[in-house]
Every structure is written in C-alpha cells, then in structure tokens.
Amino acid sequence: MVGKKSTSAGKASAERTASKKVAVKPVAAKKVVAKKVAVRKVAAKKVAANKAPARKVAAKKTPAKRVAARAAPRKAGAESVQTVSAARRIDARIESLGDWRGERLAEIRKLIHQVDPEVIEEWKWMGTPVWSHEGMYVLANAHKDKVKLTFFHGARLADHGRLFNAGLGGNKWRAIDYRQGDKLDKGALKALLREAVAFNTANAVPRSKSSRA
C-alpha cells in the first residue's frame, strides 16, 4: 500500500510540474513576442528619425539652386542672337511701311548707327524699335500720320537744336514728331543722340533686358 501511495504522489507531482512548464511557456512566448514588437517599433522610430533630416536638407537646397540660376550671367551668344533677331524685325518693319514713314525711320536708324557704332538694337512692346547703350535711350514708333522719336531721358538733355516738339510737360521723356514733308535736321539730331548716349554712360543707367527673338 505504501508503494502505491508513493507512486500516486509521484505522478501527481510530475503532473503539477508539467502543468507549470506548460503555463510558463505561453508567458515566455508572450514576452518574446512583446520584445520583438518593441524592438521593431524602436527600429522604425530610428529609421523615421534618420529619414526626416534628409527631407529638410533637400528642401533647403532648392532655394539655393534658384538663387544661383537667377544670378547666372546672360550668355553673350544668346544676346547676339537676340540682337540679330531685333535688327531683322526692324528691317521688316521699315519695309512693311512702304511709304515716307519707312524712309524716315530708315534715315533715323542710319544716323543712330553713325553716332553710336556700339548701339544695341532691340524689339520691344509688340513692335517698337529701341536703341540702347548702357540702357535704353531712344525708340521710334510709326503712327498713322507721323513718326515719333522718343528719348527716355529727354528732359535731362540740353537739346541745343530745339528738336523736341512733343511730350514737353513730362519730367523724364521728350519726343520729336516727324510728319510728312518735315525736314530732318541731321546735324542737330546727331548732336542730340550723342548727348543721350553720353548721359547714359555718365549715369550708368541699368541695361535693359533684350526682348526675346
């Protein structure tokens, strides 16, 4: 009888131990899973933290590129192409007029080049010939009954030949209106053009942007 009791007691003890082990395994498994989840979260946070500064740096670089692009000087080749294109458009404009206005515009243009061999011809405002030297100094428009020659800084010029006859009330611009039959005083006009170029050179007038071809 004693042997049977001890055997029963041993079995009971073994069953308790086994049940404890079974109970321990789920707990240990839960702890392992929890640790893995925690490790993944920490790793994800580190990756996100590392990626965030990279986006900020990329955002900071964009303005620098834009500033560099704005500060880049204009290429001489592109400028010469624009000048040639403007000259061709002025040629076409003179030819298209086909009357005394085209002839007068051609005469004025010839005098400008004689006075200022380094002049830059431009085509602005949807069809206006402009001449520049350290900035714009004169433009010409062919109207229905006249050719208007406008000086950008005419109010600052002496105009010894007294050619200005339009826009006299302004504080900056002055103009000469040529009508059919009017005489072109070449000497006085050349003197006025020289004065305009000298004014721009002395006052370092900012150079205008050439119109696109």
What is the overall number of helices?
A: 4
The name of the CATH topology of the largest domain is: Aspartate Aminotransferase, domain 1
The strands making up the biggest β-sheet line up spatially as 1-2-3-4-5
What percentage of amino acids are in beta strands? 5-15%
What kind of sheet is the major sheet?
5 strands, antiparallel
Mean pLDDT: 75
| CATH level 1 class label of the largest domain | Alpha Beta
Please report the total strand number as a whole number. Answer: 5
- Overall body shape: globular
CA-CA gap between termini: 119 Å
SS content category: alpha+beta
Tally of structural domains: 2
Instruction: Give me the strand/helix succession.
Output: HHHEEEEEH
Helical content class: 55-70%
Pfam family, one: DUF1801
Biased composition (Polar residues): 1-10
Protein name: DUF1801 domain-containing protein
Region (Disordered): 1-21
